[in-house]
Every structure is written in structure tokens, then in C-alpha cells.
Amino acid sequence: MAPGSRDDDTKKILDACKGESFVNLRDEALIRLYCNTGARLSEVGNLLLTDLDLNTE
Q1: 30 located within any domain
Q2: Is 24 a domain residue?
Q3: 41 is a domain residue
Q4: What is the pLDDT of residues 27-42, one digit of tens each?
Q5: What is the pTM assigned to this prediction?
Q6: What residues have CB less than 8 Å from 35, skipping those under 6 apart?
């Protein structure tokens, strides 16, 4: 894979999520979570609100 091509693909996916609706914002947040943390679908899909610590990020 060429350098930067992963970033280009991610940008295209994020561009497809642009919008102000709940679905657009949710999708963008999920894509960013996967990209920024390297988490797996099953790890993110099984998260509960109580699993998140918004005080310490």
C-alpha cells in the first residue's frame, strides 16, 4: 500500500459522513474512533455508556 493511501481512504470515508444529522455525526464519530484507537468492531460495538470515562478521556 502506498504511503498516504490509507489517509486518503479515511478522508474519503469521512467526507461521505459529512452532515449535521444524528446518523452523520454518529458515523463520523465511529470512523474516527476506529482510526484513532485501532479498536476492533467488536470492541467498539460492545461498549456501554458506563464504559466511557468522560472526565479523564
Answers
A1: yes
A2: yes
A3: yes
A4: 998 888 888 888 888 8
A5: 0.64
A6: 10
- Tell me whether residue 29 is in a domain: yes
According to the model, what pLDDT value does residue 3 have?
57
Q: How many residues does the chain have?
A: 57
- Boundaries of domain holding 15: 5-51
Amino acid at 47: L
Total domains present in the chain = 1
Q: Which amino acid is at 10?
A: T
Spell out the alpha helix ranges (H) of 1-57. Answer: 5-16, 22-37, 41-45
Q: Diameter of the chain by CA atoms?
A: 39
Closest CA to 38 of 17, 3, 10: 10
